[in-house]
Design brief:
Strand content: 15-25%
Number of strands: 15
Largest sheet: 8 strands, mixed
Number of domains: 2
Helix content: 25-40%
Number of helices: 14
Low-confidence stretches: none
Radius of gyration: 21 Å
CATH class of the largest domain: Alpha Beta
CATH topology of the largest domain: Rossmann fold
Order of helices and strands: EHEHEHEHEHEHEHEHEHEHEEEHHEEHH
Distance between the termini: 18 Å
Structural class: alpha/beta
Strand order of the largest sheet: 3-2-1-4-5-6-14-15
Shape: globular
């Protein structure tokens, strides 16, 4: 298979879909790989390393989109990239379609086959390709909250961990999954007063055992969320409904009653955000203020630590990339239910239940999409 990896063009996005090590694995499995020149320059992965791994270097993304059978990326295709996708071409990347009707429409119109990292599951139902970036984002969320609490940044002028005789900041984390756990871990390490809310009693029990007395866990009723948000110095939105839009758990009314100079970090912004006042921002312009509350809603947070994130992502995605290249998407999705769950768009139809629900599209099941694809291939 001919696999292509273009340079990312989203604002301040320096991650790259394939490392030289991933390229070498693909080439050793008999595949051809095209890399856009300069794709990894910003994180110390230069063209010479890709060439040594067996990649063909091309000067522009248009060549990759016009020739590659599978395109491997990091972030969702931008409008310019969507216009270059073609019927039957396989796209393997993060998509986050639920809050993005324009991208969804463009992918449908392209008739490409789009598999989203964020909805691929493993045998335990976990999200193995989302997890590494969730770990990064969860850890970064606390750093961002601590930074914007500083008075010079418009915050309350608080040190997250306090000092002897002065109370630490209260960090309220809504969601106890991978993002929430990693946020709690860093916040505890920095000496903050940490509260985690979640709907799963079993998950809260796990967090209690993990953190013992250093984190307070609460069942996430509307009352509990409101009470804790109003007492918080930093609120971290860490809610995920796989494939679907994030539920709005923090209302505009709650935000208007929060402490002046407090900080919201909505990590769920990729799926539309769990805070009603949240809107996606970029690393170039990461924050805005609503009712005196600082909002940090960068949609590609791990891009700020692009080298770490690239290697972590490739460690997770490479086995799936190899399976898709070795077998083709039809057979790979037949053989692996978890990869089949990653199928979001095929045959001009939406195949992910969460996306179909969020954007009110009719759903074509992944199994039916595979059957249809097999008939066309025959």
């Amino acid at each position: 298979m001919l696999i292509g990896c273009p340079k990312e063009i989203k604002n301040h996005e320096y991650r790259v879909g394939l490392t030289p090590a991933s390229v070498r694995e693909l080439v050793q499995n008999g595949h051809k790989v095209m890399i856009q020149s300069g794709a990894g320059d910003e994180i110390g992965l230069d063209d010479a390393q890709y060439h040594a791994a067996g990649a063909e270097l091309v000067s522009d993304a248009a060549t990759i989109f016009s020739q590659a059978e599978m395109v491997v990326k990091v972030k969702e295709p931008q409008a310019k990239e969507c216009a270059q996708l073609r019927a039957g071409q396989l796209l393997f990347t993060y998509l986050h379609l639920a809050p993005d009707p324009e991208q969804t429409k463009a992918l449908i119109q392209s008739n490409c086959v789009a598999i989203a990292y964020e909805t691929v599951t493993d045998k335990q139902g976990r999200l193995p390709l989302l997890a590494p970036m969730s770990e990064v984002a969860g850890r970064m969320a606390v750093q961002a909250g601590a930074h914007y609490l500083e008075k010079a940044q418009g915050g309350r002028g608080m040190l997250l961990g306090g000092v002897p005789g002065v109370a630490p900041a209260r960090v309220v984390i809504i969601g106890g999954g991978v993002v929430g756990y990693n946020s709690a871990r860093i916040a505890v390490g920095m000496g903050a007063d940490v509260v985690v809310l979640d709907k799963s009693i079993a998950r809260l029990a796990e967090l209690d055992r993990e953190f013992r007395n250093s984190v307070r866990t609460l069942y996430a009723t509307s009352d509990a969320i409101e009470e804790q948000v109003l007492r918080a110095d930093v609120v971290i939105g860490a809610v995920l409904v796989p494939g679907d839009a994030a539920p709005k758990l923090v209302s505009r009314a709650m935000v208007s009653r929060m402490k002046r100079g407090s900080v919201i970090v909505d990590v769920a912004i990729d799926q539309g955000g769990c805070v009603e006042t949240a809107k996606a921002t970029t690393h170039a312009d990461p924050v805005y203020v609503v009712d005196g509350v600082i909002h940090y809603c960068v949609a590609n947070m791990p891009g700020a630590v692009a080298r770490t994130s690239t290697f972590a992502l490739n460690n997770a995605t490479l086995p799936y990339t190899l399976a898709l290249a070795n077998k083709g998407w039809l057979q790979a999705c037949r053989d692996d239910e978890g990869l089949r769950n990653g199928l979001n768009v095929a045959n001009g139809r939406i195949t992910c239940p969460g996306v179909a629900h969020a954007l009110n599209y009719p759903l074509l099941s992944a199994n039916d999409a595979i059957a249809t694809g097999a008939k066309r291939a025959a």
